[in-house]
Amino acid sequence: xxxxxxxxxxxxxxxxxxxxxxxxxxxxxxxxxxxxxxxxxxxxxxxxxxxxxxxxxxxxxxxxxxxxxxxxxxxxxxxxxxxxxxxxxxxxxxxxxxxxxxxxxxxxxxxxxxxxxxxxxxxxxxxxxxxxxxxxxxxxxxxxxxxxxxxxxxxxxxxxxxxxxxxxxxxxxxxxxxxxxxxxxxxxxxxxxxxxxxxxxxxxxxxxxxxxxxxxxxxxxxxxxxxxxxxxxxxxxxxxxxxxxxxxxxxxxxxxxxxxxxxxxxxxxxxxxxxxxxxxxxxxxxxxxxxxxxxxxxxxxxxxxxxxxxxxxxxxxxxxxxxxxxxxxxxxxxxxxxxxxxxxxxxxxxxxxxxxxxxxxxxxxxxxxxxxxxxxx
Length: 377
Fold this sequence. Notes:
Elements lengths: L1 E2 L11 H13 L10 H21 L7 E4 L2 H13 L4 E6 L4 H12 L3 E6 L9 H7 L4 E7 L11 H10 L4 E4 L11 H4 L3 E4 L12 E5 L37 H37 L4 E3 L9 E6 L4 H12 L1 E2 L8 H7 L7 E4 L6 H15 L1
Parallel strand pairs: 1-11, 3-4, 3-5, 5-6, 6-7
Antiparallel strand pairs: 2-8, 7-8, 9-10, 10-12
Helix pairs in contact: 1-8, 2-8, 3-4, 5-6, 8-11
């Protein structure tokens, strides 16, 4: 099998991550923060270390504001609903967003809790800071932007957008599902107030945990209620982070894998970036020589994501052929981002997404290119 669906989840999990998960399952099967015995305390220490490492890695000002969630979708929902449900106002977002952002925002709009402006990409395929600034109103209470489009790989200028939102004291929510681990992110430097990440992608952690990092300037109220291991006499949710947003048992094996993945990524990020750039350049050269290929990546895009269609094929047909005849894994369809496909004109047939991974080789890329050549004729 040759795997090119790393935009959905990275196939490669380093030995450090596998070892951390295995150790958590075999030696740390206790409930962190729910008892005073030694094993529970050891689990709690691991969770604290993971919060501290994540805060350091992503420039979050306070480790207590690193919140563990079900996944990145859950992190985005907590940020959006926890900030907006009792606040309302006007929201600015973009047509490049994943449904993890679009659906909760449109649901709040349908309930008439918020009003919504959806920005279209410019001729470069990006959302500019100028466009964001032009869309702001006196009633704007949140700007929600994806860092990297999961469809086109377009990299939005988050730092410039953060300068705009910070100037008007409007919180900035960044969906970093496709960028965390691939591109350095510093919440302080980029004026990011809420950052949602998917550890099972660029950080090479296991599935089963998402992370929401919250800056110091704005707060989020609870969206779920339950046991937190603290203030148990009270019938109300604790107000302090992270307990206010974390109810129930934490997924300790996934958190352990996340911590190991962060350490692994910090050590190898530069070499991985160079490797992916070389592979991307190689694939780009191959694709430029093929007939009947329609490509959708803008100039300023992540070099490891390639989005295309072939001739009159539906994207699902191409992905099925690659899977069944060549044992190659890619992603076809709408990628849970309907407005991005509307912008590209591919809402009916979707698009084929090829997302490279750090374990891919030049031979893998050549094999894929040859398969695409045979399909395209």
